[in-house]
Amino acid sequence: MNPQVAAATAFGARNVVPAFISANGPIREARFKFRANGARDGGVHSLFVISGRLDTSGSAGNCDALQEEFNAHFARGNVSLRIPTPVFGGD
Hints:
Strand order of the largest sheet: 2-1-3
Radius of gyration: 14 Å
Shape: globular
Distance between the termini: 22 Å
Number of strands: 3
Number of helices: 2
Order of helices and strands: HEEHE
Helix content: 10-25%
Largest sheet: 3 strands, antiparallel
Strand content: 5-15%
């Protein structure tokens, strides 16, 4: 079971689960190939934000970060996916 799906909307978080993430699929990270200005990107982008979560306190409770529009980038072919090596239970 992919824990990203449950965490994405837990406690009122305002995330949309991207089309390339599924409950029974692997954990994935996403990199945009290009930035809006056409320059190369390649950096890993956070799939989800904590905006709207009711379980946060302090400055995190006032977070107004917006989730990036992964589905739109994915539809344009601007997303490169990677399945990171799992380290669950590693010593």
